[in-house]
Amino acid sequence: MTLASPAPVSVADPTAPILDFRNVAMTFPNGTTALSGVDLTVQRGEFVSVVGPSGCGKSTLLRIASGLESASEGTATVNTDRIGYVFQDATLLPWRDVQSNVELLAELNWQPKRVRTPKAKWAIDLVGLNGFEKHLPKQMSGGMKMRASLARSLTLDPELFLFDEPFGALDEITRERLNDELIKIFVEQKFGGLFITHSVSEAIYLSTKVVVMSGRPGHLVDTFEVPFDMPRDPEIRYTAEFAKLVGEVSHALREGHS
């Protein structure tokens, strides 16, 4: 048994996976074991979605990957220090407009204004918020807030992007639209992505690979390669091939929860 270091180990090897979990387990101080024996890799340019029942440790995986938590056992190797993290809530500062909210992470990383302002403008354009730079969060829809949150992380030029159910609270039409926007960004930026969701169809539509977790303590019970080309045609959601894969993943999810 190898105990994890206080934060993910960073290895300067461009050929290595961007994220590599080996036998990762997580037991909290109250005795709750959230994860057990998790082996998971994310390659550069690979988008991996994780589906599993509530409480199975999906979000804990992200916190370990980001360094916010340390695994109780196993090793978590992160081959970059450029990590973007998009939470379930947009977490925008209510007194800052879109431009200054998007600049925030770059500002906290001591990037000078002459650097962070054009970078924020680039990210705002990329997520489709151009024209809304001076809007405050209270003037924006839920979808617009999540776009701003995504843009904020993009200013860090992440090589590893972590997503903790960012679209879960949105209506279906807005969610599908943001899925399409995220795919465009993924294709353009070629980051490694780890995406947590409760939606099997969203996981398949976004991903190059879907992994299924068991109930708590969470471990991986199945992996599905997604055969559809990137970028995705939105109409793929209504094909028999897509429906078949949704059924297979859903079956594995039910089996892993039983």
Written account of the structure:
- By secondary structure, the chain is α/β, with parallel strands linked by helices.
- It has helices at residues 58-66, 98-102, 104-108, 113-126, 142-154, 172-189, 200-206, 240-257; strands spanning 9-10, 19-27, 33-42, 47-51, 73-78, 83-86, 160-164, 192-196, 209-213, 220-225.
- A hairpin with a 6-residue loop joins strand 9 and strand 10 (220-225).
- Helix 4 packs across helix 5 and helix 7 (200-206) crosses helix 8 (240-257).
- The longest helix is centred in the last third of the chain and has 18 residues, at 172-189.
Helices and strands in order:
Elements: E1 9-10, E2 19-27, E3 33-42, E4 47-51, H1 58-66, E5 73-78, E6 83-86, H2 98-102, H3 104-108, H4 113-126, H5 142-154, E7 160-164, H6 172-189, E8 192-196, H7 200-206, E9 209-213, E10 220-225, H8 240-257
Parallel strand pairs: 1-5, 4-8, 4-9, 6-7, 7-8
Antiparallel strand pairs: 2-3, 2-5, 9-10
